[in-house]
Amino acid sequence: MTEAVSRRTPGTPCWVSLIVHGLSATQDFYGALFGWEFKPGPEQLGPYVRGSLHGEEIAGIGQLPPDRHLPIAWTTYLATDDADATAETIRSCGGTVAVGPLDAGPAGRLAIASDPNGAVFGVWQAARHMGTRLWGAPGTPVWNELITRETSSVAKFYQAVFGYEVQAVVSADFDYQTLHLDGRPVAALHGVGHALPRDRGPHWMTYFEVEDTDVAAARVVELGGHILQPPREGTSGRLATVSDPEGAAFTIVRSGEG
């Protein structure tokens, strides 16, 4: 278990959030699954709460206006020292900025953007709120990965915007590139070709640590969620891809390091 208290290197995944129709029901789901407790957060974009473990903030959940019908999905936020400058770079590199940059009260400044292939991500310029403050414990995000058709072109976009060093897995049948900052891996790009879900398109996937992948997957179903890919062994540990009752997909993993 590690607590984060310092400002992240630009490009580091620093926060995850989810915007849903039923805020109360979603709190019940993640509270029961991960043990999160909730407290109010900035409401510039509508009702919003932050989930926490052991008093440390983990993730955010907001509520969509009743007349908005957007895809329900977890959003990975990447750290920046200047949200406005990053937004301009995103645009100049072929991405789109859909929201902001705007202030989230004294917490910081944010933008919501998408890469040239349409995968949505957030940009976070921290002020009082540094982002996720705990990782390595069950219920905390431990990895973020872009699921896309192929990685070569989009890797150039993320390199240009955030300055990543990219290390590719050399394989004829596995399209995977790891994004590094300061010599350490912080995220990855995974090209899945025609296996990309048609109803979702390219998207960032959040991995959450659990004590037991099989038990957690069964709990997801008990709480009204769904199993998208059943528990299996992977390079990072035993994992399963699931969704909450509103359809937001995420991966649960038992890495053996938590």
Summarize the structure.
With 258 residues, the chain is of the alpha+beta class. It has helices at 23-34, 83-92, 152-162, 213-222, and strands at 2-3, 13-20, 37-40, 48-53, 56-63, 74-80, 96-103, 108-114, 120-126, 134-135, 141-148, 165-168, 175-181, 184-191, 203-209, 226-234, 237-243, 249-254.
Give a topology summary.
Blueprint (H helix, E strand, L loop, with lengths): L1 E2 L9 E8 L2 H12 L2 E4 L7 E6 L2 E8 L10 E7 L2 H10 L3 E8 L4 E7 L5 E7 L7 E2 L5 E8 L3 H11 L2 E4 L6 E7 L2 E8 L11 E7 L3 H10 L3 E9 L2 E7 L5 E6 L4
Parallel strand pairs: 2-5, 6-9, 11-14, 15-18
Antiparallel strand pairs: 1-10, 2-6, 3-4, 4-5, 7-8, 8-9, 11-15, 12-13, 13-14, 16-17, 17-18
Structure overview:
This protein has 258 residues and is an alpha+beta fold. Helix content is 17%, strand content 45%. The chain has helices at 23-34, 83-92, 152-162, 213-222, and strands at residues 2-3, 13-20, 37-40, 48-53, 56-63, 74-80, 96-103, 108-114, 120-126, 134-135, 141-148, 165-168, 175-181, 184-191, 203-209, 226-234, 237-243, 249-254. Strand 7 and strand 8 form a beta hairpin.
Low-confidence runs:
none
Number of strand elements: 18
What sequence of helices (H) and strands (E) makes up the elements? EEHEEEEHEEEEEHEEEEHEEE
Q: How would you sum up the major sheet?
A: 8 strands, mixed
Average of pLDDT: 92
Shape: globular
Structural class, please?
alpha+beta
Order of strands across the main sheet: 3-4-5-2-6-9-8-7
Helix content: 10-25%
Q: Strand fraction band?
A: 35-45%
Number of helices: 4
Q: In angstroms, what is the radius of gyration? A: 17 Å
Q: How far is it from the N-terminal to the C-terminal residue, by CA?
A: 6 Å
